[in-house]
Amino acid sequence: MKNNAFLGFIFLLFIFCSQGITAQNITNSSPEIKRLITKKRSFNKTYGYGYIIQIYYGNETKARSLRSKFRLEFPGVYTELDYNKPDWKVLVGRYKTKLEADKAIINFSEKFSGLIVIPLGK
Q: What is the pLDDT of residue 2?
């Protein structure tokens, strides 16, 4: 008798849980959700997403020397030299989340100062 009650309880629990999974699938397959996902992917292709760290903003000579110094200190990290009249920027790393960028700043701040996390696409 106890076994039957226990098996019945497990069966009802299984049915209840499987309905929740089905509800999630219905929500994710709605046309509105699909349209929003498509729109977000299009935005990311155009504007990018994530974060990058700026280590310098100023004249060209110092920007190039800081970029070289950074490449020597952290050889595996992406670096970019960006010109925005009249100043140059040294940008490093590409991170999906701000938390990842903040962790990298802690590592980079031992050798460089004045670091700023910049969201991509803005």
A: 63
